[in-house]
Design a protein that fits this description.
The complex is a heterodimer. Chain A has one helix and ten strands, in the order H-E-E-E-E-E-E-E-E-E-E. By secondary structure, chain A is mainly beta. Chain B is 19% helix and 37% strand. Chain B is built from three helices and nine strands. The chains are: A mainly beta, B alpha+beta. Chains A and B meet through strand 1 and strand 9 of A and strand 1 and strand 8 of B.
Chain lengths: 180, 204
């Protein structure tokens, strides 16, 4: 028995090791799953705006001013920085933006947020955020609404413009986007 | 507007009987319910097949070489391929929006050269062999808008067995100097050879 014990241990370690290597390839489902929000003029038309973002949960916490502190840059979601694709040139707030792919950040405050488009793509969160790569900065007033459990981004048509609405907890912030 | 129509008919009635009041209450309740869902309409709930992103990077601190955005459905029955996902039929390689693949440089995808750019990745699962398709018709829901004339690559890869996995998964495997995009679901694995040598050469 004594002789087989180290062998058994070695075997067990090998098993544990191989299991780890096999399982490492595939990631489990994310706690803040990604989602995609599209804006299309009609359902069958190609999209004009696409947002790829992570959706963290409220889970009973107070979000703004607490989980997401005021006055600090936020990735507007979770995990990878939120990515926005414009399929044609647009006005983002009052800023002219060329069609293309950007990352979206925000600096939340109690009454007014700063929404930022950056050209630094495929970054993790805000760790690589560099204000030199800002493409636009837009200010937007905070509105209050029903409590939302999951951080959400959606589009709301208002005449000729569409508003990109960020919603989480009881906070709503929107940026008007004008397309042709 | 359409919803307020029966409401108008009701107010035109001379008197409200008890039954009428019940209907009236029901209609108001229905209208309130609908307006609630209208308010919430521009935010969608969490998806049953959540979206996920898989990256291939040559180095953790470097920009990605390949990015895959895909939906992750769950295994429902005894077996996925051949039942939940039929064999020999076009599949969106995930769920919801067609799976999107972005190459940041020209790559060799299987045995075919593909230019840097964004594509959708469809597949035709088979018991022994899968067909993997890259197509230029991006931002489409599922494979419903598939147009073969917009294919940029079609390759055949063998299917192999692996450990049981409940959620559809895409990952990159960089073993033995070869890079593979690995599709995994249930006990099926499909390895797609990806050669980003141009990227590697550019970084030397």
């Amino acid at each position: 028995m004594k002789k087989t014990y180290p062998l058994f241990l070695l075997g067990f370690m090998l098993m544990a090791f191989t299991f780890q290597v096999n399982a490492q390839d595939f990631q489990p489902l994310d706690k803040s799953p990604h989602d995609i929000a599209y804006y299309r003029k009609t359902n069958l038309m190609p999209p004009l705006v696409k947002v790829l973002y992570g959706r963290p949960q409220k889970s009973g916490r107070e979000i703004f001013g607490n989980v997401v502190p005021y006055g600090k840059i936020w990735r507007v979601g979770a995990n990878e920085a939120t990515e926005v694709t414009f399929y044609e040139d647009v006005l983002f707030g009052s800023e002219k933006i060329k069609k293309g792919i950007y990352t979206l950040f925000a600096i939340p405050e109690a009454t007014e947020w700063t929404i930022i488009l950056s050209s630094n793509l495929d970054t993790w969160g805000t760790y690589e955020y560099d204000p030199k790569q800002d493409v636009a900065r837009v200010k937007s007033k905070v509105k209050k609404a029903e409590e939302l459990e999951s951080f959400s981004i959606g589009f709301k048509e208002k005449g000729q413009t569409v508003e990109m609405v960020l919603g989480w907890d009881t906070t709503r912030v929107s940026v008007p986007i004008t397309t042709n | 507007m359409i919803l307020s129509f029966p409401f108008n008919i009701l107010t035109d009635q001379v008197k409200f009987s008890v039954a009428m009041k019940k209907i009236y209450f029901g209609v108001v309740f229905f209208v309130v319910l609908c307006s609630h869902s209208l308010n919430a309409q521009h935010f969608s709930p969490l998806d049953n097949s959540p979206t996920d992103i898989a990256y291939l990077r040559t180095d953790n601190n470097k920009k990605p070489v390949v990015k895959v955005i895909y939906s992750r459905p769950l295994k429902r029955g005894e077996q996925v391929f051949g039942t939940q996902i039929p064999y020999d039929k076009l599949w969106r390689t995930g769920d919801n929006e067609a799976t999107e693949v972005r190459f940041y440089s020209d790559v060799r995808f299987g045995d075919q050269l593909v230019k840097a750019g964004t594509y959708v990745m469809h597949s035709i699962p088979g018991e022994k062999e899968w067909t993997i398709i890259l197509n230029k018709n991006t931002d489409t829901l599922g494979a419903f808008f598939y147009d073969q004339s917009k294919d940029v690559a079609r390759i055949k890869v063998p299917a192999r067995n692996g450990e049981q996995i409940d959620i559809f998964s895409i990952a990159f495997d960089k073993n033995f100097n070869n890079t593979y995009m690995v599709l995994g679901w249930d006990t099926t694995r499909v390895n797609i050879p990806i050669d980003t040598y141009t990227q590697v050469l550019a970084e030397l």
